[in-house]
Amino acid sequence: MNLGPYIEWNGEDYRCTLCDRYFNSRTALFSRCRYTSQHDWCERCTRVFRSPAAKQAHIKAAWCHNICQVCDADLETPTERMNHIKTVHYYCQPCSRTFAQAETFQKHNVDVHHMCVHCKQSFKNENNLRMHKQKHLPRNLFCYGTDCCYAFKSFSGMLIHIESGNCMSGIDEEDLDVAVAVFCANNDYTLSCTPGYRYECMACFAPFNKPSALYQHVEGARGCYNEILVELRCELKLMCARHSEDRPPFYTGIAF
Length: 256
Ligand SMILES: [Zn+2]
Ligand SMILES: [Zn+2]
Ligand SMILES: [Zn+2]
Ligand SMILES: [Zn+2]
Ligand SMILES: [Zn+2]
Ligand SMILES: [Zn+2]
Ligand SMILES: [Zn+2]
Description:
Bound molecules: zinc ion
Keywords: Metal-binding, Repeat, Zinc, Zinc-finger
Structural class: alpha+beta
Organism: Aspergillus pseudoustus
InterPro entries: Znf_C2H2_type
Number of domains: 3
Largest sheet: 3 strands, antiparallel
Order of helices and strands: EEEHEEHEEHEEHHEEHHEEHH
Strand order of the largest sheet: 1-2-3
Number of helices: 9
Domain C2H2-type: 90-113, 114-136
Radius of gyration: 35 Å
Pfam families: zf-met
Strand content: 5-15%
Number of strands: 13
Helix content: 40-55%
């Protein structure tokens, strides 16, 4: 152990040159030098200093001292200091800003860093956060398809399931497309003006090729959901119910 420039060891005894005394053990040396008024003492480093100024200079420079610039707390490692600043002073590292209260800090994290308040994880953009938030939703929407035992967190999740052809009712992407086309024709709606896309968000004009993608978009984008899409959702539910009635008694999945 490096005891600094003021402690000497002759192989047997220790000598504190500032106190000018000999000690037969390190423990004896520490127990006096720790409390003496003849010099300053750093407990963490067990070192003596000529003056309070010298001790202060040591604390500023030594790697074993990590001073919090907000409250002057002395942390043992740079990581501990960073954790202290982040948690005690609500420090945002990317913005180099501290916050006085947990509430304003949380609001900042949500608004600027797209943080999920459930798991405190931050996301690159609002879209990624929205996708992530699905994870916290309960799976309590049961498939509209008759005799299908799947449940979903969102309507778009159910549509993805139907489009993938996994619905146990036998309804698939084609049924959805037909139902949407009939709905539009009956109600005089156009769901897309964008060439090459069958669907489009009526609020922000983002184009999509599948109903699931359109619903996924409006479920997250505040203000994009509208009455027509609510009606269409009801229509698809009815279509699913009708689909089971239309089924021939010995349905084999083959269209004839
Ligand atoms: Zn001493
Ligand atoms: Zn020290
Ligand atoms: Zn602090
Ligand atoms: Zn920030
Ligand atoms: Zn989360
Ligand atoms: Zn299903
Ligand atoms: Zn939109």
